[in-house]
Design a protein that fits this description.
The protein is an all-alpha fold and about 160 residues long. The chain has six helices and no strands. The longest helix is centred in the first third of the chain and has 32 residues, at about 35-65. Pfam families: Rubrerythrin (PF02915).
Length: about 160
């Protein structure tokens, strides 16, 4: 079977969420303030929950997929999604660890988190427009809403720090 299918994209999405979890856990360790630690732990747990969602969705799509060609995506779409995944703040190329090492203030960490949420929304919206499975669509719609909520929370937190 040629081309990229939904399962490979679900693996990519899971990897991005795992990197988000690592980032927020590391960020929590960089600050002494208990409220800040709790906030980053909360964000890490949200990312961990998304990892589980993608694992479960992967299993369900894999069971339905078989070797069906209908789950293949257009090459341009796949390359676009791969580019987003490879260059996102939370990616599997090791850049997340580098980013967290450069965090010196809570504001820095929040700005990185805000950009990561934007990256995730862009990835999930494009994936949503191109998926052919209803279960993937439903999950992506829910995750997009959660990521938008996180983006808003980051905005409020950054304003409160000023």
């Amino acid at each position: 079977m040629e081309g990229f299918n939904e399962l490979e994209l679900l693996k990519m999405a899971k990897g991005v969420e795992e990197e988000g979890y690592r980032f927020y856990m590391e960020a929590a360790e960089r600050f002494q303030d208990e409220d800040i630690k709790q906030m980053f732990h909360y964000l890490a747990l949200e990312e961990a929950e998304h990892v589980k969602v993608f694992e479960q969705l992967y299993d369900r799509v894999a069971a339905r997929l078989g070797v069906s060609e209908e789950y293949l995506m257009e090459e341009e779409v796949v390359q676009y999604l791969k580019a987003i995944s490879d260059t996102a703040i939370f990616n599997t190329n090791g850049l997340t660890y580098y980013r967290v090492q450069q965090v010196n203030t809570v504001r820095d960490a929040l700005l990185i988190g805000m950009q990561a949420e934007k990256d995730a929304i862009l990835f999930y919206e494009t994936f949503l427009k191109n998926t052919k499975t209803d279960m993937t669509q439903k999950v992506l719609e829910r995750l997009i809403k959660e990521e938008v909520k996180h983006l808003y929370q980051f905005k409020v937190l950054i304003q409160e720090l000023k």
